[in-house]
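[job 0412] stage=complex_fold ligand=flavin mononucleotide status=START
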Amino acid sequence: MARDPRYDILFEPIQIGPVTAPNRFYQVPHCTGMGHRNPQTLAAMREVKAEGGWGVVCTEYCSIHPSSDDDPYPAATLWDEEDVRAQALMVDKVHRHGALAGAELWYSGAFSSNFYSREEPLGPWSRPTYLNNPVQCRVMDKRDIRDLRRWHAAAAKRAQRAGFDIVYVYATHGYLLSQFMSPANQRSDEYGGSLENRLRLCVELIEETKEAVGDTCAVAVRCSAAGGTLDGTPVIEEHRALFEAAADLPDLWDLVVDDYSYEMGTSRFVKEAALENYISWVKQVTSKPVVTIGRFTSPDTMLRQLRDGIVDLVGAARPSIADPFLPKKIAEGRLEDIRECIGCNICYAHNSRGVPIRCTQNPSMGEEWRRGWHPERIPARQSEKRVLVVGGGPAGLEAATALGQRGYEVTLAEAGKALGGRVALESALPGLAEWARVRDWRIAQLNKLPNVEIFLDSPLDAGQILEFGADCVALATGARWRADGLGRWFESAIETSDRARVLTPDDIMAGVQPDGPVVIFDDDHYYMGGVIAEQLRGSGLDVTLVTPDGIVSSWTSVTEEQHRIQTRLLQLGVRIETSTVLEAVRDDSAVLACAYTGKQREVAAGCVVMVTSRVPSDALYHALSEQIAIARVGDCSAPGTIAAAVFAGHRFARDLDREPADVPFLREGSMR
Ligand SMILES: Cc1cc2nc3c(=O)[nH]c(=O)nc-3n(C[C@H](O)[C@H](O)[C@H](O)COP(=O)(O)O)c2cc1C
Ligand code: SF4
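[job 0412] stage=complex_fold status=DONE, emitting structure tokens
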């Protein structure tokens, strides 16, 4: 299909200093959990983005010196010539598709603890490093500042030798330059105190990077355009000073905002193009191109941002992860094929855990090199097998889609009246509406596959599955939340009186209305406990959320939303009992106990909601596994995230008719 000419502007080349980007699609720097450990994995992943039409593809934060080391998060490095060779792998692959490659030079300063290199962290002040590590950085003296400037210029040169087209001065996200620019920097020398002094190091680095590599590379500055609150009131006075001091010095401004949890907020809290109010003033003070982000998945929003002169390039991290081929799909007029990011931040969560990135929507993300998976191509079927997929949740939908794309004859049987499984239910909970994209994209793809037949309202028992006679069955029947409280804290059921009312998230999602006051016991620690609390409080109930952890929804710290969740619950009037466990459920009350001392107290409870763990719905597997070729896929095998269910469905489809291997993917390492 031809491209809608309305979108032509998105495909116009643009000059950035000495280089020209072929279009306006700009993959801003984002980490991958691969960094210096997995250069081949990284290069293959970035190549897919370039192949998919991103005109600029950047690295993640790239350390310039061993005194800036973020292990166990594996940042990329540009410390020496070996790193030049590793980075060149990515550059060559990106160039192969006509895109530009950008390197984000990073110096952490007082942020990192340097646990790998064991170098002392350096910062503008002597303060403890982040994450409560027992490490305090050294105050940089003049010699340290001179060293830093030398390291930065040398790393820029190395980036140039690796073939990069754009080199970054990274002046945000709390790292060294933000620390110098902060009003908290009250050094008594020319690098602290007054605003002019606080900006000095940043301006020097921009000038010196231009001097080092400006003949062939564009120099970009990533910095914050505003502080301010979630209500959209930007605070720009301090930020404006940097733009005024260096308005036309760099070749490109890459704009973010002070609050990282807003910049890359989950869809539960932050919607598309949310930064617009904060950054729209910048083009008035610079003649240089401007790029920013906003979880852009709608071509019309992208178009409007360009047309209205807010930006010159459309920046994206997550949309390029969820769909590396997003630009190509717009170019080819295939808008309905765009696999839109759902804003769950599972990508960031795993990178924050120091493991390779993954994506809920795009199961091939991070698997390009080690498993040879491509987001748009899948090997053709290797047999005439007829496959029955039982269950139309995320795992079943993905399995049916990918099997159908391989060319197998597929029957998808869903017990309910609609497809989507847990995604359909969970996307109806407060703030999670965009999660329905997991279902909707797959349904749109399935509708194009004549070899996939879908049956709704079709619960199957073991006899019916046998009778159907498929060559192979993928059981994707999901899991149910337990009502007995067993989970991480309790290894056996919580004592519960016969007349107590105990519900689970499945009941709430099915529309069961509890009697108040409600006690939620959250031993799951991800989003579900907090979301259920929000929903029940929203319906006017008195709600207490009890968790053995010290904070609410603790795992959401890695999705960058924990603070927002706890704030929202407190603002809604949910009572929060941290470091507390649910010891027993009585007729009209709950017995709570301190997680440390065991001291008990009783609170009124008309109903208790258990959010602790799930039971796989795998009875059909056990009934049939000795009789037919049947596999459990997704939550009915091992309950986990939606991302894990989609991955399992995709893997099942990819692996059909392949010999299983004990080590199912390639590994990188110099001994191999
Ligand atoms: C997995 C992940 C890793 C990121 N790592 C970096 C990084 O290394 N350097 C950086 O400047 N920003 C990083 N970011 C922030 C993104 O560049 C971007 O500003 C943010 O995700 C918002 O853009 P989006 O809405 O298009 O995702 C990261 C974001 C994600 C999702
Ligand atoms: S993991 Fe979630 S937030 Fe990240 S790119 Fe994929 S869909 Fe978007």
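Residues 318, 321-322, 341-347, 359-361 surround iron/sulfur cluster (ligand 2) (CB under 6 Å).
[job 0412] exit 0
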